[in-house]
Amino acid sequence: MAYDFKKEEKQFYRPGKKPELIDIPQMQYLAVQGQGDPNQEGGEYKQDLQLLYSLAYTIKMSKKGSHQIKDYFDFVVPPLEGFWWQDSVEGIDYAHKKRFNFISCIRMPEFVTDEVLAWAKKESAIKKGLDFSSVKLITLTEGKCVQIMHHGSYDDEPATIAKMHQFIAKNDLELDFSDQHRHHEIYLSNPQRTKLENLKTIIRLPVKEKKMKND
């Protein structure tokens, strides 16, 4: 059976409709960084997704070719994830999507190394005729986060995030945005095949314990 991160590590992929506090360990990803409105047809975001999925499936399907990856095991390609931010804004401003910066990524098993990625880029370039130089292998440790399952349109996320802010305030926490800690989303549904009201998106916000005034 192919290893499925969503099933084997349910605590990271099946939050409820109410905010919860969780500690996210180190994970590694295929990642590409870009800018712009993710809804723009032919925009950088959608082009980058093609690069990520091409590489992820090239690595997964290596089992059927002659190239043997050390310590390989079959896996279900995990869902697309995104880290989002805008310059000089804490969190994100949904009214100005053109100002988005993003890191789009797909989680990878531990056996995926820089050497494996270099091989996958070469194979994918031959098959797809695309430039994969912008894709990198990164490791991130998010640490303490508040997460929730958002149901419905991405444009309705502010109401869900408001619930998260209330939870953060009630639990003596505060937001902890930085270059390493971003607004994080995990997309469990394919928006091209799923009705808006049925979309499922995990939202994570980085947090830390709130400093007391006398500290």
Descriptive notes:
There is one protein chain. With 215 residues, this protein is α+β, with helices and mostly antiparallel strands. The protein has a single domain (15-209), classed as Alpha-Beta Barrel (Multidrug-efflux Transporter 1 Regulator Bmrr, Chain A), CATH 3.20.80.10. The protein is 25% helix and 30% strand. It contains 5 helices and 7 strands; from the N terminus they run ααβαββαβαβββ. The protein has helices at 5-8, 10-13, 44-60, 114-128, 157-170, and strands spanning 20-35, 80-85, 101-108, 136-151, 173-175, 183-187, 200-209. The protein has a 6-stranded antiparallel barrel with strand order 1-3-2-6-7-4. The chain is globular and about 60 Å long. The model has no long low-confidence stretch (mean pLDDT 95).
Lay out the secondary structure:
Blueprint: H1 5-8, H2 10-13, E1 20-35, H3 44-60, E2 80-85, E3 101-108, H4 114-128, E4 136-151, H5 157-170, E5 173-175, E6 183-187, E7 200-209
Provide a short characterization of the protein structure.
Helices cover 25% and strands 30% of the residues.
Please name the fourth-level CATH homologous superfamily: Regulatory factor, effector binding domain
Radius of gyration: 18 Å
Biggest sheet, in brief? 6 strands, antiparallel, barrel
Strand order of the largest sheet: 1-3-2-6-7-4
InterPro entries: GyrI-like (IPR029442), GyrI-like_CCH_Lin2189-like (IPR008319), Reg_factor_effector_dom_sf (IPR011256)
Protein name: GyrI-like small molecule binding domain-containing protein
Domain GyrI-like small molecule binding: 18-208
Organism: Lactobacillus helveticus CIRM-BIA 953
